[in-house]
Amino acid sequence: MFGQSKIKAIKAGRLIDVVSGIVLTNQIILVDSTMIVEIGSAVTIPENAEIIDLSNATVLPGLMDCHTHLSWQPGDNYYEDIFRKTPIDYAVLAPVYAKKTLDAGFTMVRDVGSTQLIDVSLRNAINAGKITGPRMLVSTFALGSTGGHTDLVGFNPDIDWKGNKDFTGVADGVDEIRKRVRNNIKWGADWIKFMASGGVLSEEETPGLPQYSFEEMKALCDEAHLWGRKVCAHAHGTEAIKLAIKAGVSSIEHGSLIDDEGIQLMKQKGVYLVADIYNDDYILAEYTKKGYPEKIINKERMIGKLQRENFQKAVKAGVKIAYGTDAGVYPHGWNGKQFFYMVKYGLTPMQAIQSATINAADLIDWKEKTGSISKGKLADIIAVDSNPLDDVTILEHVKFVMKDGTVYKNEFGK
Q1: Which of 86, 114, 197, 362 is the most exposed place for a label (fewest CB within 10 A)?
Q2: Partners of residue 60 on adjacent β-strands
Q3: List of residues 6+ apart from 355 with CB closer than 8 A
Q4: For the purposes of burial, counting CB atoms within 10 Å of the CB of 270, is it exposed (0-12), middle (13-18) or buried (19 or more)?
Q5: Which ranges of the chain have pLDDT less than 70?
Q6: What are 220-249's pLDDT values in tens digits?
Q7: What was the pLDDT predicted at 5?
Q8: Which of 110, 88, 186, 195 is nearest to 151 (CA)?
Q9: Which distant-in-sequence residues (6+ apart) come within 8 Å of 124 by Cβ?
Q10: How far apart are CA 49 and CA 163, in angstroms?
Q11: DSSP for 244-270, written as a single string
């Protein structure tokens, strides 16, 4: 019945079934190699099984963060980050960020923008078992217009640190955009990400305005779909959100200024909202100390409050929600802090957990492989001391992490 590897038997005192939305008690989960092979209250534990006793814990699927940047985290000085650090500096630290993310209970992430293909190398090293981290889907260079959120704006025009002009996400016009999509896929992108509107943490000054035409967005989505890739759109602005939805994206990132029409479009097209509603607190508390220009801080003051209000409207209207934090904007490993805000702004604790498990798996097309503790799925399993349905902030303190059947953290003992 079982393979040659030693069976692991997890005794789960409470188990959150994210498919049915209920809590089961006194469950036995049998893991053979990387897979869940049996689950239930009357499962017989094989004699040779390794027992993992989580009978005093709450067990749930490994969490997923659909908006991370594992190759980056702000240092102590904004200008030093731009002018003194090389891609090697970021590559050296990326494995540290990956381990912190896995230790926080996030067994899979969608990484939505990197430089110099650090994300590809990190993903491949994790998959090969050379370093420890979450399973990754990567998007390489985020695409955007000249002068837009993915470009270097506000500095001496003689400054040029890109080197190879083909090794960038800056693209204008249908033909150039199609080439950039193909380049990203050639270099290893699982997803395509683009900047539909301006942003907050750059010095361009139009966070709410579109930075691509509809024709450009449509060409980008069409090209990605030809190659079997889905598309996510960074979109704060009202019109940019609607253009991106009509162009064919699968998720809207941020969605700060979405209006009622945009909400209805998202529902109609089945597009997910991935809203980073925690990091406003961190940016406003810490980024002035890091030397970020005041105009960036002012953009966050304007955008952050509206984002949370409009997230609440989208939740109430029934828009599909997937968990995404923009980790890297704040310290990696803090991904779980967003659960509190998702509940504060409209989700139930169960819905918030579902957004980071079964919903996230649906968005990234991994629902048949992970996202729930189910027979035949990958053994991505975490545990916490108490029931997060009573206090969702317990998910900031994950004490047990299993990914692909391997235990990476166990503070409960054996």
Answers
A1: 86
A2: 382
A3: 321, 322, 323, 342, 347
A4: exposed
A5: 1-5, 152-165, 203-205, 414
A6: 999 999 999 999 999 999 999 999 999 999
A7: 61
A8: 195
A9: 188
A10: 55
A11: HHHHT-SEEEE-TT--HHHHHHHHHHT
Both tokens assigned to 380:
């991505």
Whether residue 139 contacts residue 113, with contact meaning beta carbons closer than 8 Å, is answered with: yes
CB-side neighbour CA atoms (13 Å) of 159: 8
pLDDT of residue 259: 97
For the chain, the first-to-last Cα distance in angstroms comes to 25
Q: Which amino acid is at 164?
A: N
Distances (CA, A) of 149 to 59, 153, 196, 239: 40, 8, 9, 16
Q: What is the pLDDT of residue 75?
A: 79
Q: Strand 381-384 vs strand 272-274: parallel, antiparallel, or unpaired?
A: unpaired
* CA 97 – CA 100 distance, rounded (Å): 5
pLDDT computed for residue 157 by the predictor: 66
Query: Which residues, other chains included, contact 389 with Cβ-Cβ below 8 Å and sequence gap of 6+?
Result: 16, 23, 349, 350, 353
Torsion of CA 298, 299, 305, 307, to 10 degrees: -170
Q: Which amino acid type is present at position 189?
A: A
Helix (H, G, I), strand (E, B) or coil at 55: strand
Contacts of 29 (CB under 8 A, 6+ apart): 9, 10, 12, 15, 36, 38, 39, 43, 59, 373, 379, 381
Residue 83: the pLDDT is 74
Per-residue confidence (pLDDT) for residue 79, from 0 to 100:
73
Question: Is 114 in contact with 71 (CB distance < 8 Å)?
Answer: yes
> Which residues lie across from 65 on neighbouring strands?
109
Tokens of 158: 């003689």
Structure tokens at 101: 């993310």
Contact residues for 108 (Cβ-Cβ < 8 A; gap 6+): 62, 64, 65, 134, 135, 136, 137, 360, 364, 366, 370, 380
- Give the CA radius of gyration of the chain: 21
At residue 161, the pLDDT reads 55
Give the pLDDT of residue 208.
Answer: 77
Q: How confident is the model at residue 148, as a pLDDT? A: 79
Q: Tell me, what amino acid is at 140?
A: T
pLDDT at site 271: 98
